[in-house]
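Forwarding the complex inputs:
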Amino acid sequence: MAGQTLYDKLWQDHLVKSREDGTALIYIDRHLIHEVTSPQAFEGLRLAGRKPWRKDSLVATPDHNVPSEAGERAGGVEGIRDQVSRIQVQTLDENCRDFDVVQFGINEPGQGIVHVIGPETGATLPGMTVVCGDSHTSTHGALGALAHGIGTSEVEHVMATQCLIQKKMKNMLVRVDGELGPGVTAKDVVLAIIGKIGTAGGTGYAIEFGGSAIRSLSMEGRMTVCNMAIEAGARAGMVAVDQVTLDYVKDKPYAPKGAQWDKAVEAWSQLHSDDDAVFDAVVELRAEEIEPQVSWGTSPEMVAPVSANVPDPAAETDTTKRTGIERALEYMGLTAGQKITDIQLDRVFIGSCTNSRIEDLRAAAAVAKGHKKAESVKQVLIVPGSQAVKAQAEKEGLHKVFIEAGFEWREPSCSMCLAMNADKLGAGEHCASTSNRNFEGRQGYGGRTHLVSPSMAAAAAIAGHFVDVRELQRDAALTAEEMQQ
Amino acid sequence: MKAFTQHKGLAAPMDRANVDTDLIIPKQFLKSIKRTGFGPNLFDELRYLDEGFPGQDCSDRPLNPEFPLNLPHYQGASVLLARENFGCGSSREHAPWALDDFGFRAVIAPSFADIFFNNCFKNGLLPIVLEEEVVDQLFEEMYAQQGYELTIDLEKQQVIKPNGETIGFEVDAFRKHCLLNGLDDIGLTLEDADDIRAYEAKRREQAPWLFDAVK
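Prediction (whole assembly, two chains):
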């Protein structure tokens, strides 16, 4: 018999029951909750007179609607100016109180983007099944967990039963071997993957990311990659457990301690695909061939290396794709064949569950240090992913680097990733964004999003247009050499 | 959940690939704490010429005269014809809620995004996957013939065209059963409560760190 994949093992470990109709009951270890997709689920429980099956599996925090601007944020829930946003956050407060659910409230030290605080507190751990009413739940797969987004009906279902009714997905291995070049980050890797397989390439699959380039990534980098598995159509993305995982998890507040830690490490040592495991699909990329990426269109698959040009729809033979490119170029206000580096930016956003962790802020600060944002750029928002990230960044003085560069240092929230709070693009504005979706209107009505890594976003903020961050880094290295001589 | 057995209704087009959930229902409308009332904002950015905001009376807003759902001959449509990868993007159930609230009972496309597809079944909205050439054919016939109505028979797993021609489709047995009978998943799962408890007891022994860490 062939060996098992990581996904096969996680599935097997959580299988409560296989049913005759081909579905299965899968047990859920951790259920993360935020204000947007939970109110109707709590209401459903209330109407049916049900209670959460296991309260200690639930962790809630408000992130989508909370203000990032310090003044408004200081007022807490009551201070949220947008009335509908305020009601939604208040409703989460009430529901957590009524159902006795642990919540990291708006200005509490544990608050943050739900996919940042999970790993950071140890609330999400290797070997867990993790769900949340949010498609970027795939992030937690970086820990060697089976994690995916669910709709509100399923949020209610998991609260009421601790289980999900599932059909097993197929297995896909995305292997990236080789060494990433300088200036090429986890974000570029995942954008290159999506560019290769398309936004529906992973539909119906759980993707395991492997290969030496993935292994060489930090946990933060692996989270960035898994976060965007859904942008390739796969609900779940995951990376096998290794020493990097264990070093990251150890001593996290909710991680096991002492003898339990040893027992857990032993169990987690199995969380990798067997050598003879069979995947339904395998996709391979060479790390050396990946350049810093910039999305030019209105779907994450519409992405190109920074050295390339905006594509010409006339060169596309597939009619659906050609129409898609034409529509995207019109929406984005770009011309076929235009150089990516000629795209001028109006705003820059560094944040989101994709790229708001400490490593992301360090990368952005390293580029921004000693520079100023371009005059033509109206606003550069730096939005840390959690209160803990914010505190760490301030301890390292990163916030000063940003403020000196003319960037705005904000409060933890989803912010301009999806513009549910006050942070948004104006119609027609171009934004270099470290977030995950460049859909029409995503960052504001008529807004134009370009997905990039944190260092590419910071470089664009300084230049006012896209630049190849590798050239900046080469220039900086040369200057340092000259100074030494 | 409302049951779906048989439905006959007017077909209307959403003729582009990769329609994402932000396009189906933009984020500002996700601030609602209700499950209903999203219909007027379905495809908001395509349907209207201005920016929409929650709680607004949409009857005074300028309509995009070119958007199919605004055309007189698609009024009252309840079967949406769509292209590949329909519903990609976020997990927001507001997307099927908006389609349902608008009056759609079924969406026919060559492929759907996983989470959206699953969410539809929880809301009595039937997503039907048909071969791309078959969907192309339906689009052509719908464009050629005003008042093009399709009948969907879930029991028989058939789409029936106005000329009586039938097209078979696949549907998962469990989902079909729930839709036909309008069953609530939670009640069904709770029938297995003993199995869940037994699994949980075993799991607590094997991996105690998964329990009671967060209090």
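The mean pLDDT of chain B is 96.
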